[in-house]
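A favour, since you know our structure tokens better than I do. What I am after is a single protein written out in full by you. Could you add the entry underneath, on a fresh line?


***
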Amino acid sequence: MKLFFCIAICATLLACLVRNNGAAGQESGPASDELTVIRQVACAKSTTLYELSNGLTLFVRTKPGSPTATVRVLVRNTGSMNEGEFLGSGISHLAEHLIATGGTSKRTKEETKDLINRMGGAMNAMTSKEFTEYYIDCSAESVSTAMSILADQMQNIVIDPKDFLSESLVVRQEAKDGQNNRGRAASQLLMSTLYREHPYRHPVIGYSDLLVKLTLDDVMKFYKARYTPNNQIWIVAGDVEPARILSEVKELYRGVPRGPEQIPVTVRESEQMSPRQAVREMDGATIAAYFAWPTVRLSDPDTYPLDVLANILAGGESSRFVVKYQRDAQVVLGINAVNMTPEAVPGSFIVQADLMPGDLAAFQTSLLDDIAQLATLPVGQDELLRAKKQMETAFIFSQQQIQTAADSVIHNYMLTGDPDYEETYLAGIRRVGAEDIRRVAKKYFAPERLSKIMIVPPGTTLDAAADQTGIVEEEIQAIRFPSRNIRVLLKRNTRDPIVNIQVFALGSSLLDSDANAGRSALLAELLDKGSAHYTRDELARYFDSIGSALTVRAGRNTIYANATVLKDDCAKTLNVLFDALLTPTLSQEEFDKAKTLLLKRVEQRKDNPIQELLEAFSDSLPTATPYHLQLGGTAESLTNLTLDELRTYHGQIFTPANLIVTVFGDIDPNQVAQQINNALSQLPDGAAAPEISFDRTNELIEPIREHRVTNKETAMGIIAWPTVSSRDEKIYSALTVLQAILGGYGYPGGRLFDELRSQGLVYRVQVDQMSGPVPGYLYVLFETQPEQLQTVVAEVLRIVATVANGDISEDEFQKAKDRIIAFHAMEKQTAEEQARQAALDDLYGLGFAYDQGFNERIQAVTLEEVIAAARQYLTENIIVTTGPEN
């Protein structure tokens, strides 16, 4: 478990994992005798370890009845700390891109993609500081195919020089973009400050000046040296037979010999003897502050009390720092604590907070005082027990997904040599006492070993401020071309040389019915698969060549496309984008592939407890509301959809009169307006916009109660109340404040979270509004143990009733409003987020500038209005639960 969380933390807090989709492999050696098993070990949880004579390690985990399976290969002696002569270049990450998108000596890359699509699988890859991993999630029936694909990747890679050039450009652009990404910048600044000598300091993506020097020969040399059987740890998990899996792996690796063993990294990081500080100025309104103290490796017994302490300090809404700094004092927008413990090098205990510049001095003084007191004041027994229970419960919940459980096994084994290390870790957590917490705090939290890392807005520190001369940010301009009746929103911001382009078509569930639900998702899958002037591959190559990507998604009320490009690529991208969206090929072949994929995704909902719950909830709603429809469709609705029907639907909504286009970034608005007009002039006129009514009802004739039986060892529930649309300005604003009081806003919190978590009743609980241009619902979603399901339902209703009866203090009310305003500002920092909000508001009839009045609308809400809204709307409800029958 610790390994799983450690890797997850690196991915989120430190941003050191990079993912990519694809497939490929390495030339095998001469044929040899059949492989033999030189070691076999029965592990916990129906898992068997096999070590083959060529050094390959295989785990097989059986889970009878599982609807899905996963095949994963972890490659040791790769990752940014293991790159040898190429250290610092990011060659592991570049190789991952090429292996995951290229062909092999057995299959072309198109054939590999087609195999994955046909079996309805999902393929991905990741590179970390310590390894690279490839995996395919699929059905149990497709495991053999998935194994064949991954074995081919590991053995027979063939990289076309053109692919090497294009993929290198993509990775270089990714590295360049990362320099302007606060999360990645903070990660690199943190690592380079904590580690002065050990290669753990180097970024996964590499340094740009070393990355550009890599050649195809370099990648092939690295691949042949590192992608050997003795560096590979396989796991196959699902409803599978171990003997058959072992036999197939032996056959797939017949004649593939053990490779030379790699010399492990032995660099020793010198002990930190004095405080360190690093500050970087970046665009933004807030400070990301990190306070770190060097601690231990994963295998050190002090890992356990340090991990428990991190949970006590910031492991939930009732934790010390969240209550003190985020909920009560409200000096931070968010705060986290983590004990980062790799095995290759001693780790660090890190406290991270997001806050406004004016709050930094007072927060820093108070935080360091709190840390110092940990060495003298023991933690309370209740606090200690609650933290340990939360950690164990979180692990149990995390293991429900077969993919997570499989990752845990191979990560455990790679880092500790023990696939069942999670049991050792949980036992260590259970043994932690209050004196252990005090002892490690005294031992490690010395002021002279503190490192402070800050990402700050320009001008915040005494360092020279970034040159802001010449930066222009203008208001949004709205343009409508009479000849095409298309709406365009433009905003100039010259801070960075990038442009975000989005196109929205109103429709989706607003036009769908039970019979054709899912057609928007199906159409979205096809809009980047070829057009009047570009084939599918030409579209993909164009966006790859400019270091961008075209994303098309079906939302609740729209289908939208999104691309962020460098400013010099804006004009060409507009032409390509309009061609793809307005004149798509919509071929029968691609239609059949997309339909098969979506049908697999319908089945895949059964894998995820939250998806099962949301499906049950939608099914329970009155048919008059569009929220009743499954956005991804049902097996029946998707099966019955025809290509002709989809073409008709496309012509209905992807007509200029039904679109809104946004272009935000480093642009000349007049020039872009002309470019859009030129692009549209080459395309058909299109039909009139469809008639879409927002006058829809969500009223309940009677309360709804439904329990859906699942095979999950967890219970979930939604309790929902019909409310208003986002167009009902005054009431919707009051309900937003009510939402924050009950369940937080942006971050978990509020009355329900505090009370239910303090009683140990739920693993998760959140409150949100399912809303848009038609009336929706305010809902509470929770996850709990099956035997506590009825208790949680009763407690939610009791707590909601107390709020509806007026039990809200003025302080609680004001803090809720402050939190909403602060988080809303964080949500709308990028051009993409600002453009999407402006477009949706305009489509919904609110006007593109509606969001500019958000703070004023929230501030204008009174406590009396919140209570009145609660009394009016939190009455008749819908209760839908899932879990094992009991």
Notes: The first strand starts at residue 18 and ends at 20. The CA atoms of residues 68 and 139 lie 4 Å apart. The mean pLDDT is 88.
